[in-house]
Amino acid sequence: LINALSTLTNPVARIAVLARSVAKPMEFSGSWIDAPRESAAYAQQLYANLRTLDTRDADEIWIETPPDGPDWVAVNDRLRRATHRQ
Question: What percent of the chain has pLDDT over 70?
Answer without folding.
Answer: 88
